[in-house]
Amino acid sequence: MPQADLDVRRVAKRYAGLTAVDELSFSVDRGSFFSILGPSGCGKTTLLRMIAGFLAPDSGDVLIGGQSMAQVPPNRRPVNMVFQHLALFPMMSVAENVGYGLARRGLPKKDVAQRVGAMLERVGLPGSQNKRVDQLSGGQKQRVAIARSLVLEPTLLLLDEPLGALDLKLREHMKIELKQLQADFGTTFVYITHDQSEALVLSDHVAVMNKGRFEQVGTPQSLYYEPRTPFVAGFVGANNQIPGRASQVSGDLVELTTDKGLRLFARRMGTVETGAAATAFVRPEVATLARTLDALPAQQPRFAATVASLLFDGANSAVLVHEQQSGTEFHIALPQTGQFADLRVGESIAFGFDPERALCFAAAPAAAP
């Protein structure tokens, strides 16, 4: 059984009566890439700061490498942190930035220089020791910040939205680089982000956080294809969310009827009672488009629709359609065959989907006033 580099046990943090982290327990295996994904205000940064030692939990304990961190200050923990704004020293060279922690530990200058040079080689910045920070690109600065942390050989590397300040194209490139760096070094990464793409691409396991608790922890694939709660289904990946009532429940299949009269079928997730409020989730790529209803499989529910908007985004292009009888809007991914490249707004279209690939959850209870 893999050993855990991080073991969080019933950790809680409250501010003025508001619970930021609600008695969370989880562990992170040695050498893995673990992400905490959630919206702003869900408590993920508070959790990371407690792991780092910048905040003390109100209750619970954090173990790193099997040792309790209670009463251990941040500078004595086997942890380093990379922030969104990197916090590089602008007046120092690249070598001085990367070697700062080693110098503070009192290592001889020769040893510091040797380890810094080797680390810069490993992060793809050989020979950049004498460069100034302002001479580096955004991606190079990112690698310097990571090198500065990894050169200290921490048990854990904590990353707090480290790609948030980068432009889109560089962010996409750095996702690949980060994943490769973690695999090369084998250091345990704990990464927090609100960007689901970052979490899915980078991680071995992802925890989806909401209101101070983990809704679900699993592989990116399990979170995407088998969400256990409506929040996870709605937060991880794009989804058409169709509220209605369960007019019929037959085994694992729910017939959902909306207040506008749309009837569709979806796979039951958890307990869904006949007559109760429920929500169906249909991913854009699950639906199949056709020019006519007859061109779709007869054994699946089929819908006539009108094209409301075309969303061209290369390989991620989609179409917004309105189901003709109810007016319900569906966001549907366009296939990359080019067969619908001539679609026009206002055109009639048909779509359908396999009910087994749509999910139906009982509606969440209304919040108390």
Can you walk through the features of this model?
The protein is α+β, with helices and mostly antiparallel strands and 369 residues long. Helix content is 22%, strand content 34%. It contains nine helices and 20 strands. The strands form four sheets. It has a six-stranded mixed β-sheet with strand order 6-7-8-3-9-10, with helices on both faces. The longest helix has 18 residues, at 168-185. The two termini are 47 Å apart. The mean pLDDT is 90.
Given as residue ranges, the uncertain stretches (5+ residues, pLDDT < 50) are: none
Compute the CA-based radius of gyration: 25 Å
User: Main sheet?
Assistant: 6 strands, mixed
Percent of residues in helices comes to: 10-25%
Supply the number of helical segments: 9
User: Mean pLDDT across all residues, rounded?
Assistant: 90
Specify the CATH class of the largest domain. Answer: Alpha Beta
In the CATH hierarchy, the architecture of the largest domain is 3-Layer(aba) Sandwich
Q: Could you tell me how far the N terminus lies from the C terminus, measured between alpha carbons in angstroms? A: 47 Å
- Write down how many β-strands occur, each being a DSSP E stretch of 2 or more residues: 20
Order of helices and strands: EEEHEEEHHHHEHEHEEHHEEEEEEEEEE
Morphology call? globular
**What's the number of domains?**
2
What name does the CATH topology of the largest domain carry? Answer: Rossmann fold
> CATH H-level name of the largest domain... which superfamily?
P-loop containing nucleotide triphosphate hydrolases
Strand order of the largest sheet: 6-7-8-3-9-10
The computed structural class is alpha+beta
Percent strand: 25-35%
